[in-house]
Amino acid sequence: MLYYLIICRSLTYAQRTAAALERAGITARILRSPKSISGEGCSHAVKISQRSLPDALRVLQRVDLTPKRIFITAGDGSYQEVEL
Amino acid sequence: MIYLDSAATTLQKPPSVALASARAINRLASPGRGGHRPAMAAAETAFSCREEAAALFHVPSPEQVVFTFNATHGLNIAIKTLVKPGSRVVISGYEHNAVTRPLHAIPGVELRVAAAPLFQRRAMAEAFRRELDRGADVAVCIHVSNVFGFVLPIEEIAGMCRERGVPLIVDASQSAGCLPLDAQSLGAAFIAMPGHKGLYGPQGTGLLLCGRSPEPIIEGGTGSESIRQTMPDFLPDRLEAGTHNVAGIAGLLEGLRYLRRRGLETIAGHERRLMREMGEGLSALPGVQAFLARDEEAQTGVLSFRVEGRDCEELGEELGDRGFALRAGLHCAPLAHQTAGTLETGTVRASVSPFNEEREIHQFLFAVSGLVH
Lengths: 84, 373
Hints:
The structure holds two protein chains of two kinds.
Chain A: E1 3-8, H1 11-23, E2 29-32, E3 44-49, H2 53-62, E4 69-73, E5 79-81
Antiparallel strand pairs in A: 1-3, 1-4, 2-3, 4-5
Chain B: E1 2-3, H1 15-27, H2 37-57, E2 65-68, H3 71-82, E3 88-92, H4 97-104, E4 110-114, H5 121-133, E5 138-142, H6 154-164, E6 168-171, H7 183-186, E7 190-194, E8 206-210, H8 246-262, H9 264-283, E9 288-290, E10 302-307, H10 312-321, E11 324-325, E12 327-329, H11 334-340, E13 347-351, H12 358-372
Parallel strand pairs in B: 1-11, 3-4, 3-5, 5-6, 6-7
Antiparallel strand pairs in B: 2-8, 7-8, 9-10, 10-13, 12-13
Helix pairs in contact in B: 1-8, 2-8, 3-4, 5-6, 9-12
């Protein structure tokens, strides 16, 4: 199943992001960012389904939360960055 | 034992506090240090605590709520961020050593004390205005005196600081959980508070509400941006190096929830009622001087008193032997005693919480009357 990972600058931002999405009815799960995409070391990401991204971006814009980076899973298990 | 030392630590707490702390020891790991369930559960608890505090103190965003070990820790961060060698700093005449000692440790600080008689809020505001007008780089002000329960006019002082562009640090050690405190309207640079007093958390907890970017006083792992050898530039990670006091935070969360359920107004009203009854009762006893404000709004549930011809520490001991927990001496606030004129004698301090009852005040007054007659 394809999904998006919203990379957040900190665990607290990830929690704010997930809380805002959940409040808007978008299922969101916090997890540690995969090492291959974590950039500057440990970070947290919020996982959402493929179909939720447009709504999620709208919600995050509304609450003034800017995603650091967003990745989508590829069929081979790797991640591809999504240009915003 | 009748506990009248809540200004030091609220010993009586909602039962949910201890339960949550005990549960956390067995079930919660370290926030941000793993993706497993105990780590994520700890992260949820910490986030809930930040959110609860942000709502209570009107902090715009939960990451501006930073966990500290106590108010002193938070005050040290705030002071060391803003005060540099040679800075001109205005403080009230009622500050605790948690403020004055860090300031004295910074070389060349020009300290200006805005002093006013006890419980005179207008004079206090005027004193601050005078000192700020002389030019200041930073202001530090206690919201409520830990010795006398004197409620300083913090909204007015914050307004003066905003008008003059002087960053303000608020020591809310005695007011957090006892009086309404609105971080957004105060516009203070930092507000520091303990978790173990009016917020009913365990000892070893505290909060620093950050209105601006702070400088860390300890560095270390944060579970974020691990490759970098400098501390993250974002809150709360910038100030939270090392493992959190998760058991403490879990308890603090329950303390904050209790406050929300019970209501600050109800708590403040109860504490003031008990304190006034105590103050009026003590004032009626021969040789007893109770420091009681005429204006009820100028004092919280903290009351100092002294007895003519009696050493305050000995009196505190004697009351302790009779089953009353109080605190005597200078209360780590010699400046406050100097301002109020009690530096030579010290005082005995009684302080109440929502868990005290009127009958306990009557028993206390009876005990004091037996000692002074």
